[in-house]
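Training component of the fellowship. As part of building independent skills, the fellow (R.M.) carried out the full modelling exercise for a liganded target. The chosen ligand was 2-acetamido-2-deoxy-beta-D-glucopyranose. The inputs are recorded below so that the supervisory panel can assess the work.
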Amino acid sequence: MLQRLLLAGLVPQVVLGSSFSLSFERIRSDVNILLPSTPGFGRTAHTSEFDEQGFWFTNFTVGASKDLILLIDTGSTDVYLNPGVYKPSPISQDQHVNFTITFETTNPDGSGTETIVGPVYKDIVGLDGTNLSLSAQPLGAVADPVSPPTFPHDGLVGFAGLYQTALNSTSWFQQLCDHGELDACRFGIAYKTDETGEQYFGYVAEERFEGPLSVSPVIPNMEWGTYMDIAYDGQVVERDALMVTDSGTTIIFGPIDQVQTLFDAAGIQSVLSPNTTADAPSTLTGYFNCSNPPTFGFGLPSLSNATAASTNLSSPVSHQSTIFNILPSQLVQNSTGDNCTASIHGTDEFPFWLVGQVFFQGKYIDHNHDDETMGFATLWQS
Ligand SMILES: *[C@@H]1O[C@H](CO)[C@@H](O)[C@H](O)[C@H]1NC(C)=O
Ligand SMILES: *[C@@H]1O[C@H](CO)[C@@H](O)[C@H](O)[C@H]1NC(C)=O
Ligand SMILES: *[C@@H]1O[C@H](CO)[C@@H](O)[C@H](O)[C@H]1NC(C)=O
Ligand SMILES: *[C@@H]1O[C@H](CO)[C@@H](O)[C@H](O)[C@H]1NC(C)=O
Ligand SMILES: *[C@@H]1O[C@H](CO)[C@@H](O)[C@H](O)[C@H]1NC(C)=O
Ligand SMILES: *[C@@H]1O[C@H](CO)[C@@H](O)[C@H](O)[C@H]1NC(C)=O
Ligand SMILES: *[C@@H]1O[C@H](CO)[C@@H](O)[C@H](O)[C@H]1NC(C)=O
Ligand SMILES: *[C@@H]1O[C@H](CO)[C@@H](O)[C@H](O)[C@H]1NC(C)=O
Ligand SMILES: *[C@@H]1O[C@H](CO)[C@@H](O)[C@H](O)[C@H]1NC(C)=O
Ligand SMILES: *[C@@H]1O[C@H](CO)[C@@H](O)[C@H](O)[C@H]1NC(C)=O
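Fellow's submitted model of the complex:
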């Protein structure tokens, strides 16, 4: 999930709340929920996560409740619990303030907005099975609307930067860093295609991926956005695109003209659905033969950023760009016979590419707050 932004130069301003568009879920069968517990060691930890309908979850303790199932969202910042879920612990602190955050609606056409409100507390927020716990993390207890619940399962925990908060607080992850709970202020996500994944805290799980990380600069003050080139079949068709990564978005959105360029390069059918009302965005949908999927990918770091880094000895950014393709299985959002709907959609709702978990799958994605970089690599097994 991602808050809707206006980019003024490179200084983003929060305008609205996060997107939570269930209409863009990928169609999946139900899966069994099995979370092996993985104890933390030293000032690093890792946890198992599971994928359900394109959203990723793991167990947290919040306040007096253990085993809450929270959505892992790298596109927003705060901790929110669904109505009725929050049970204060003895050290809970009522902040005597209400939060307000506006979400994109769940209407099939993406129109409208939904505002959630509720009181703010500070309380225990800990990742089950690890030592990663804070005793006074700000959290929002959703009071309105009561139903339907805003989030699947119990709520969500955000991993993005300060610019996405509606609680005036840094994320749980960043507070762990500030409290010296992690060896390095970074986390990695490794999502496989079998609906299981891992998240690593305080280190890079190098045994999980091939070769070195391809390191790309984070857009200043905009964790976790970076720059990329857009590629079809290993050839760059668009350069220097802004990309915001978001584990809490199921699919991929890009500006209509750039998505059109990509679909045209692949020679696939595209259908523009014009807006029918002023607040409903136009969308571009791509269809391809399931038996012959196109190869779409993102070049990271961008060629421009790689070239700039190669003349700057102190830059942590990789000197070469690597194209990371979306796995063919993840490019399919839906299918009817041999007619597959692409999981990349065009919309002018965001002035950037919003890159969701279909891209994450089969990759290791490092989120490095110390260096303000992101690192990408291909998982050994996916
Ligand atoms: C996670 O929470 C669910 C639901 O509360 C519970 O059934 C499950 O046993 C928990 N998993 C672990 C590893 O604690
Ligand atoms: C928060 O909202 C509730 C419900 O609308 C209201 O009763 C309460 O006074 C508000 N609290 C603050 C501190 O504004
Ligand atoms: C981490 O937690 C385990 C119990 O889950 C505990 O035995 C261990 O001492 C803790 N380690 C540190 C460094 O706090
Ligand atoms: C966040 O800060 C703004 C501006 O200082 C204030 O109006 C708002 O009430 C604060 N919100 C919370 C949830 O603390
Ligand atoms: C479509 O959106 C545009 C821009 O927001 C608006 O000017 C136009 O009136 C909308 N079209 C319809 C049919 O509402
Ligand atoms: C898709 O399949 C149809 C019918 O088999 C064929 O005519 C068409 O050329 C194929 N298109 C692509 C892009 O592979
Ligand atoms: C990366 O590329 C973007 C777009 O060309 C540019 O604005 C930015 O300054 C570059 N960043 C670095 C660190 O080279
Ligand atoms: C070189 O990279 C460092 C570290 O990212 C950065 O602070 C510095 O501004 C860069 N220098 C130039 C000339 O771009
Ligand atoms: C998936 O395809 C089926 C059959 O064409 C259609 O009924 C359904 O609405 C589609 N779902 C989505 C999310 O596009
Ligand atoms: C694929 O399905 C969509 C939605 O039903 C339709 O608009 C499109 O024309 C179909 N494409 C092909 C090649 O059959």
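The panel noted the following from the submitted structure. The longest helix spans residues 256-266. Residues 261 and 357 are 22 Å apart (CA to CA).
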